[in-house]
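Troubleshooting log. The previous run stalled partway through. Resubmitting the same two chains, unchanged.
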Amino acid sequence: QAVLTQPASLSASPGASASLTCTLRSGINVGPYIIYWYQQKPGSPPQYLLTYKSDSDKQLGSGVPSRFSGSKDTSANAGILLISGLQSEDEADYYCMIWYSSAWVFGGGTKLTVL
Amino acid sequence: EVQLVESGGGLVQPGGSLRLSCAASGFTLSRYWMSWVRQAPGKGLEWVANIRQDGGEKYYVDSVKGRFTISRDNDKNSLYLQMNSLRAEDTAVYYCARQDVGLFDPWGQGTLVTVSS
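Second attempt completed without errors. Output:
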């Protein structure tokens, strides 16, 4: 089982909100982990979006709109990337990442379609 | 402008070697950890290796341990990835990225490595 699991795809309408989940493998408690989120558009390298550990320990990337935010769902053992007021330009692949067992580990990525 | 430019990719036969380079500009390389991240065609991101500011600490993903070596030359503002015993599954675009804990930014545009006979 992968360390981080993300749904392969998600669709949402313009103006709506999208919640992208990043579930940690059973036995790995999301609580202590800092979760990083990246956005990648076709033909371009990934871009840093934000960091989330807790509401008092979070950071939004430079130039990243405040429509992007992070949280955790401890009952689901998951990190969440919330995008509000979806725009067509938000259509991209999104990856979560943590430092685990002396390695940076990415989730498999979620392809977000805005239609 | 802070910039990273990778080079050295290309076509190599299975079992062969390749050395990737990453030229940094616009910032002081010696102040940052640096990482290599790869992306196989149509697939997700996979972190490959990283290296501490002075080169004294390095980490690798299990699949490349013993085959790949990350290094740096701060005087030349350059990061390297020596890849030996290459396999078909190493085929990917390889990105270098400046690292501030888990904040990878910026990323280079990537260099394509194709392992095929």
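Takeaways: The longest strand of chain A covers residues 47-54. DSSP finds no helices and eleven strands in chain A.
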